[in-house]
Amino acid sequence: MTILLVLLSIAILVLLIVWAKLNPFLAFIISSISAGLLLGLPADQIAGSIQSGMGNLLGDLVIVIVMGAMLGKLVAESGAAQKIAGFLMGIFGEKNITWAMSITGLVVGIPLFYNVGFVLLVPLAFTVAYQYKISAVYVGIPLLAALSVTHGFLPPHPSPAALVAQFDANMGLTLFYGFLIAIPTIIIAGPIFAKTLKNVHANPLSTFQAEIRPESELPDTFNSFFTALLPVFLLVSTTALNLNIEPESSLGPIIRFIANPGIVMLISVLVATYTLGLKRGFKMTQLMDIYTIATKDIAMILLIVAGAGALKQIFTDTGVSQVIADGLSTWDIPPLLLAWIITAIIRVCVGSATVAGLTTAGIIAPLVTTMNVDPNLLVLSIGAGSLMFSHFNDGGFWMYKEFFNVSIKDTIKTWSLMETLVAIIGLIGVLILDVFV
């Protein structure tokens, strides 16, 4: 009966988003209240539970997500993203153009939120396709595969960062494992899959052609790569040091302080403010305006994350999460696979990768302790499931269709299939990694 009530709560969430077209944040709050009432939480405790869940989750994430948005916006506005793309194109050339686009998507996609990366890089892909007289879909799919993988697998993107916080995982280890899985996933869903798309016709609208900056206005190559990838360098290096340093070492507290994801992002933004901003002639007021716009861009993401925290807290306070975990522990399905299946189902129903991932996290969080699941791999399993089969209820589906100006049929054959490949290959990578870690 308990599981049926949980399913009813999730059904309410899905219907509010898909059928009633309600904003996901409002849908989360309403479904949280509904879940509390259905599951027997006293009415006077529901509001407190919702507030607690929102505060606990956002407390871990606000710095990471906001600083990530600021860094990504500056990477875009400074021309660093264009410099990275141009440099990689120069190395790989026309013959290996899909590999160049995949690496561009991976490198630039790490600091950029998905929608920003899409809008910034897809017009560059159109320019490349026009220059070499080849299909824009053939050039664009490898780029978008890489952007999708960074969005679903790699902190500091909102969903994986939120999952790290919910499961008390290690962000550095999650990032390291994420890279191990991301690279083969991007290769298969990107350049290899793109070979089947050379004849797919696309006629990108002139509105979406990139405004290419003169080379003289771009930062140098080292500055562009170093600044964009600084969060990765800091997270991976401090995690490695943490694993190898003696517990009683006096450097331990300092390394752990720097390793905190919020501190990593703060350091990265401060460095970028100088290297991509002040050093290149930007005024401080200009930079602060860029950062203000960046925070406006991700305000709704923060609210959706907060709403997911509210629903998770309702499940926790009613004891439902533990009941479900106990029930699932008797299923003869590996927990990592189970997490992927639940997430994929919610993703197909709701459309939002972030909503799917965070909803699943609230349901299966107790599995981390009751079934001895590696929390870092659980983050990646859910991240992979959250990208399953993007279709009509996903904004990304329509962005792709309109930017590339292709038919619904070709959108499903290219975009939807690419997203499905990413989800399935990502799961396979998680299961393989689970054998060794």
Automatic annotation (TrEMBL):
<keyword id="KW-1133">Transmembrane helix</keyword>
<feature type="transmembrane region" description="Helical">
    <location>
        <begin position="30"/>
        <end position="50"/>
    </location>
</feature>
<feature type="transmembrane region" description="Helical">
    <location>
        <begin position="96"/>
        <end position="122"/>
    </location>
</feature>
<keyword id="KW-0813">Transport</keyword>
<dbReference type="Pfam" id="PF02447">
    <property type="entry name" value="GntP_permease"/>
</dbReference>
<dbReference type="GO" id="GO:0005886">
    <property type="term" value="C:plasma membrane"/>
</dbReference>
<feature type="transmembrane region" description="Helical">
    <location>
        <begin position="257"/>
        <end position="277"/>
    </location>
</feature>
<keyword id="KW-1003">Cell membrane</keyword>
<comment type="similarity">
    <text>Belongs to the GntP permease family.</text>
</comment>
<feature type="transmembrane region" description="Helical">
    <location>
        <begin position="222"/>
        <end position="245"/>
    </location>
</feature>
<feature type="transmembrane region" description="Helical">
    <location>
        <begin position="377"/>
        <end position="400"/>
    </location>
</feature>
<feature type="transmembrane region" description="Helical">
    <location>
        <begin position="420"/>
        <end position="436"/>
    </location>
</feature>
<keyword id="KW-0472">Membrane</keyword>
<dbReference type="GO" id="GO:0015128">
    <property type="term" value="F:gluconate transmembrane transporter activity"/>
</dbReference>
<feature type="transmembrane region" description="Helical">
    <location>
        <begin position="174"/>
        <end position="194"/>
    </location>
</feature>
<feature type="transmembrane region" description="Helical">
    <location>
        <begin position="57"/>
        <end position="76"/>
    </location>
</feature>
<dbReference type="InterPro" id="IPR003474">
    <property type="entry name" value="Glcn_transporter"/>
</dbReference>
<protein>
    <submittedName>
        <fullName>Gnt-I system high-affinity gluconate transporter</fullName>
    </submittedName>
</protein>
<feature type="transmembrane region" description="Helical">
    <location>
        <begin position="298"/>
        <end position="316"/>
    </location>
</feature>
<feature type="transmembrane region" description="Helical">
    <location>
        <begin position="134"/>
        <end position="154"/>
    </location>
</feature>
<feature type="transmembrane region" description="Helical">
    <location>
        <begin position="336"/>
        <end position="365"/>
    </location>
</feature>
<keyword id="KW-0812">Transmembrane</keyword>
